[in-house]
Amino acid sequence: MGISRHGRYGLALVLVPIAALASAAPGDDDAGKKTATGCCACCSSSKAGGLSGVWTGEYRYAEGTGQRPVAFTAFLFQDGDRIKAMIKEANTFGDQQSPWLHATAEGRYDEATHTLRFTKTYDGTAGVSHNVAYSGVVASEGGRSMEGTWDIDGVKGSFAMRRSASVD
User: Fold this and answer.
1) Model pTM?
2) What are the structural domain ranges in the chain?
3) What DSSP line would sit under the chain, residue for residue?
4) Could you report the per-residue pLDDT of 122-161, keeping only the tens digit for each?
5) CATH T-level topology, domain 15-25+34-166
């Protein structure tokens, strides 16, 4: 899969808890409902880790590409060192049949180094289906912000996000 310098393959993060969606049976009336202590039943579980919650931010292409930063919203679920998510972002590079792109993400958080590594996989919406490797460092001030890089087969950029709501 080639990547043009014009950004044919863009990327972003909008992470939504995947564990709740994966475990919810079709027709389950509680699937995806907001609860009193979290954004969904998944985040309300006692297993929700310190990074679980709603994050906002943007991803950026490398300097000189002419590509503008793209904002995102992320709903992240942490269970121990594992991170899972569903992703939604504005369609800035796929075919224009859909206004949104969708993906899943899975990875690990190393608490000792405050490093989060995960792979985002686009689902084919708007003709976009590829993987993006992410690596970021969570700030030590309560895990409320993160900065890092993304990589698609050697084409790289950066991202930053800040938690706007946490899961108690």
Assistant:
1) 0.71
2) 15-25+34-166
3) ----TT-SS-----EE-SHHHHHSPTT-TTTT--BTTBSSHHHHSTT--TT-EEEEEEEEEPTTS-PPPEEEEEEEEEETTEEEEEEEEE-SSS-TT-SEEEEEEEEEEETTTTEEEEEEEE-SGGG---EEEEEEEE-TTTT-EEEEEEEETTEEEEEEEEEEEE--
4) 899 999 999 999 999 999 777 899 999 999 999 999 999 8
5) Lipocalin (2.40.128)
